[in-house]
Amino acid sequence: MAEIDKDLIRARMAGLLERVDEPPAFDAGLHDLLRSLGSEEQVAGARQFIPGMGESYGVPLPALRVIAAELVKWGQRHVEEAFALVERLWHNGSRDERVIAAKMLERLGKREPGRTLELAASFVADIRNWEECDQLACFGLRNVVQRHPEAVLPRCQTWVRSGDEWTRRFGVAVLTSLPKDKGYRPAGREFAVLDAVMADEAREVQDAVAWALREIGKRHPGAMAAYLRRHAPGANRHTRRIIKQAMKVLPDEDQEAIRALCD
Predict the structure, then answer these.
(1) For 88-117, how does the pLDDT look when each residue is reduced to its tens digit (9 = 90+)?
(2) Is residue 40 part of a domain?
(3) Are residue 96 and residue 19 in the same domain, yes or no?
(4) CA 189, 125, 159: angle at the middle one, nearest 5?
(5) Are 165 and 132 in contact (CB under 8 A)?
(6) Where is 152: in which H helix or E strand?
(7) How many structural domains are present in the chain?
(8) Same domain? 50 vs 164
């Protein structure tokens, strides 16, 4: 991958932001920028790993982060317009614009957690693949769930009971940010969310559950091991798959004990 010219992207974004009050002109200019930064090779490569990706300009993630950062700087002075832009970018529908939208929400969530949560929640039913799911959950809501878990975890309880697998995965993936907060202590609420999907049949959901448990286990292995021991006896093949993936971060003796309970 060619080196990203951050200064050039910033200069192009400065020119684009002069037209931000003209949505058709701004969107056309942004699409021109994305085309110049992307490639069909990048699109083809990403499509191999992201089933259901949809339209993409093939822009590398580092370049998308630079674009999002410039939009966030502008958005700090134009909050209303920034939220409107996030909504428009998401609904424009390209992979690249949805990544930018999620990155913008990550920063906006520090100052406007309530609005960030509501807007992200309005996008969930429109998720098409694992990348959109994880970008929105792990970045878009990162600061909101860390600072206001009491507002987010009840939503997660609803999301993990959805009939749509991407919605269920979203409700789980949001939890992966909790243990990354320095003050995090397991409180049981996150485990109550995971209870609903510990036997989920969808592999994309199972992978997210194991991921969330590993993140908890890295910080609090005892709490995670106790949770797995509770689910191990009589576990079906879906639960066993989750347990097998999750316990990799535990000490060997805990892994052996949990493995024995699954047999």
Answers:
(1) 999 999 999 999 999 999 999 999 999 999
(2) yes
(3) yes
(4) 15
(5) no
(6) helix 149-159
(7) 2
(8) no
- Return d(Cα 248, Cα 200) in angstroms, integer: 20
Domain-located, residue 180: yes
Determine phi and psi for 35, rounding to 5 degrees. -60, -40
Is pLDDT above 60 for 1? no
Distance CA(263)–CA(261), nearest Å, equals 6
Residues 36 and 100 in one domain: yes
- Say which residues have a Cβ less than 8 Å from residue 169's Cβ, sequence separation at least 6: 130, 133, 137, 202, 204, 205, 208
pLDDT of residue 4: 87
pTM of the entire structure? 0.94
Question: Do 109 and 166 share a domain, yes or no?
Answer: no
Task: Answer whether residue 141 is part of any domain.
Answer: no
Q: Is residue 259 part of a domain?
A: yes
- DSSP reduced 3-state for 19: coil
Query: What dihedral do alpha carbons 189, 211, 48, 13 form, nearest 10°?
Result: 60
